[in-house]
């Protein structure tokens, strides 16, 4: 595609969508270029927004047979999203180059977080930095598997392309059951008319919104926050002043987005959990939430994309009736990352070869998820 000048990002999304619809209609191969265009037009109401209105394949006709032979053998309906994740990781990382720390979360970490926060039907779940909507897709599968119904799922991201990927994942992986909005999630309500119009998560959720039951997220790990007018409204801004990191703001934002008693799972770089500089962040969190558990992830967990060490904090937003710093905290350290030092997968001995690859990974997060779920539910 590089040879043809086609924007491969949208063309690959178009390919995934036409293959998905072709499979739903019983075809196992990629149809002709003309039939692909027909499929896109037939499903325009579902795909026009995702594709920014371009409903025809852009790959030159002489390259199309090659696409058919490569892509025709891939099943979209039956695959487990590991491949889709990797494709999106490749496609989006280029546009994120100037913006470090936007790594997609490995599936088994996502599943641990979701199982621990246990999103139930009737509850609202939010990921304010949703990327490819991995947490919400997992929450959808969890709800269907555990309760026969999923919670109400809301993803937000300020990147247009991330939203398009998330919408594709919602359509193909969750029957359209995840709502995705493009917004700067850190933006708080305008204080004065001079702040100007601009959406916030609260305005997008509507007047009756009183906070989410669950927030589950992996915010960007890097980058300081600029001089956006809303930043000074954050309590943590007064502690960290000029050296305000985005993930610090996301911690406060997540707590603000929850209703009292709401459950939080947030993936953070290790320095937020253990570094001396971020002691005040932890004290702030302890005042506003009951920290229930900390899972220290293995250094290999995010390989091959980054060797950054990370941890997950699980907490419950503290209702005023409960005393601060009163919770017992369960600490876990993951020793089995399911990856080697070069980032390739390590599978459980004797694992089911027919299972999706990430389900057969040799990791130790399942037990932690079950124990944390009991602790969060008891809160
Ligand atoms: C680490 S990635 C999350 C990846 C996602 N959890 C996944 O595994 O697919 C962080 C995401 O946050 C988004 N982001 C960063 N700052 C944001 C902001 N202020 N508002 C909304 N989204 C933001 C980025 O565009 C990126 O998609």
Descriptive notes:
- This protein has 379 residues and is of the alpha/beta class.
- It folds into two domains: 2-71, no CATH class; 99-378, 3-Layer(aba) Sandwich (Rossmann fold), CATH 3.40.50.150.
- The protein has helices at 8-24, 33-42, 44-47, 64-71, 82-93, 107-117, 134-147, 160-174, 201-205, 235-240, 246-257, 270-274, 279-288, 365-378; strands spanning 124-127, 152-157, 178-182, 212-217, 258-269, 289-296, 310-317, 330-333.
- The protein has an eight-stranded mixed β-sheet.
- Strand 2, helix 8 and strand 3 (178-182) form a beta-alpha-beta unit.
- Helix 1 (8-24) crosses helix 2 (33-42) and helix 7 (134-147) runs parallel beside helix 8 (160-174).
- The site of S-adenosylmethionine has 20 residues, from helix 7 and strand 2.
Q: Any chance you could write out the topology, listing elements then pairs?
A:
Elements: H1 8-24, H2 33-42, H3 44-47, H4 64-71, H5 82-93, H6 107-117, E1 124-127, H7 134-147, E2 152-157, H8 160-174, E3 178-182, H9 201-205, E4 212-217, H10 235-240, H11 246-257, E5 258-269, H12 270-274, H13 279-288, E6 289-296, E7 310-317, E8 330-333, H14 365-378
Parallel strand pairs: 1-2, 1-4, 2-3, 4-5, 6-8
Antiparallel strand pairs: 5-7, 6-7
Helix pairs in contact: 1-2, 6-7, 6-14, 7-8
The structure holds S-adenosylmethionine.
S-adenosylmethionine binds at residues 102-105, 129, 131-132, 134-135, 156-159, 162, 184-186, 218-220.
């Amino acid at each position: 595609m590089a040879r043809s000048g086609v924007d491969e990002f949208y063309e690959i999304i178009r390919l995934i969508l036409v293959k998905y619809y072709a499979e739903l209609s019983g075809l196992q191969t990629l149809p002709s270029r003309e039939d692909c265009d027909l499929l896109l037009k037939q499903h325009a109401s579902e795909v026009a927004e995702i594709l920014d209105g371009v409903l025809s394949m852009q790959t030159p006709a002489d390259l199309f047979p090659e696409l058919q032979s490569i892509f025709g053998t891939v099943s979209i309906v039956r695959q487990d999203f590991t491949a889709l994740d990797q494709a999106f990781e490749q496609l989006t990382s280029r546009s994120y180059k100037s913006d470090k720390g936007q790594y997609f979360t490995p599936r088994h970490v996502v599943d641990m977080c979701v199982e621990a926060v246990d999103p139930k039907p009737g509850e609202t779940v939010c990921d304010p930095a949703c990327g490819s909507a991995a947490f919400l897709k997992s929450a959808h599968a969890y709800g269907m598997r555990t309760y026969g119904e999923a919670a109400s799922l809301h993803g937000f991201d300020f990147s247009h392309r991330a939203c398009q990927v998330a919408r594709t994942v919602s359509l193909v992986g969750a029957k359209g059951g995840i709502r995705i909005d493009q917004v700067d999630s850190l933006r708080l309500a305008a204080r004065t008319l001079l702040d100007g119009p601009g959406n916030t998560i609260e305005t997008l959720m509507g007047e009756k919104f009183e906070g989410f039951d669950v927030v589950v997220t992996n915010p960007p790990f890097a980058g300081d926050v600029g001089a956006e007018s809303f930043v000074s409204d954050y309590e943590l801004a007064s502690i960290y002043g000029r050296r305000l990191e985005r993930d610090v703001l996301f911690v406060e934002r997540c707590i603000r987005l929850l209703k009292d008693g709401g459950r939080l799972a947030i993936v953070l770089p290790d320095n937020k959990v253990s570094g001396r500089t971020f002691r005040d962040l932890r004290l702030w969190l302890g005042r506003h939430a009951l920290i229930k558990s900390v899972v220290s992830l293995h250094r290999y967990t995010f390989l091959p994309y980054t060797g950054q060490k990370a941890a997950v904090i699980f907490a419950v937003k503290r209702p005023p009736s409960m005393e601060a710093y009163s919770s017992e905290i369960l600490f876990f350290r993951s020793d089995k990352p399911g990856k080697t030092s070069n980032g390739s997968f390590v599978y459980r001995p004797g694992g089911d070869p027919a299972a999706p690859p990430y389900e057969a990974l040799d990791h130790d997060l399942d037990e932690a998820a079950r124990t944390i779920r009991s602790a969060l539910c008891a809160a």
